[in-house]
Amino acid sequence: GGGSGGTLYKIDLATGNVEGTFATSGTAFYSWQGIGGSPAVVGGRIYFTGVHGKVYCVNAATMTLIWETDLSAPNATRRQPVNQSNADSWSGPLVVIGRVYIGCGEGEDPNTYGFVYCLDANTGNVNWLYVIPASVAVSDPLPAWATAAGFSIQADAPAARETGSSVWSSCAYDSVLNRIYVGTGNSQYKTGEPSAGTDLPDEWYGS
Predict the structure, then answer these.
(1) pTM
(2) Cβ burial, residue 31 (10 Å; 0-12/13-18/19+)
(3) Which of 188, 128, 192, 137 is nearest to 159 (CA)?
(4) SS3 for 138?
(5) C-alpha dist (Å) from residue 184 to 28, 83, 181
């Protein structure tokens, strides 16, 4: 908190010399700033997250930006329909077969859902996103442009009382089952629900 952002460093392994940097800026929940997780280096590109909910793709040779996607603000060009200003990203990205998987959210904010995003590795555009718990969002209409872009809301488990649980781990990929696994933190009551805390154990997706 209180800084100007975060910096990604490219350091020579043998000499320790800094060969390049890339700076980020932005503020997240609790006014945190900086880089949220370890970067992934794939195909001459560096993929990493800012705590403030942005995903970056940087050229590994030149340390220049290729694309940037904000997971906290709607963007029709990026096919990003979510408006959650406190959707922090504490996990590093997973890059598999041309896609980037990212977890985000803020478990300590009762108005913010948790998400797993799948982005196109070349463009940063959203292929799909999963809301934790997805059932909470079924009653929330998608923007017209998101519907036009082909997004739809899939039915899920019965509605839980909590809003989202933040993703607290980097995604893991199982190539045999073609599944993504994530670890989540505590969940929060929806706005207007009891303020004493969440039910224990957390319902469906929390903890």
Answers:
(1) 0.84
(2) exposed
(3) 137
(4) helix
(5) 18, 20, 10
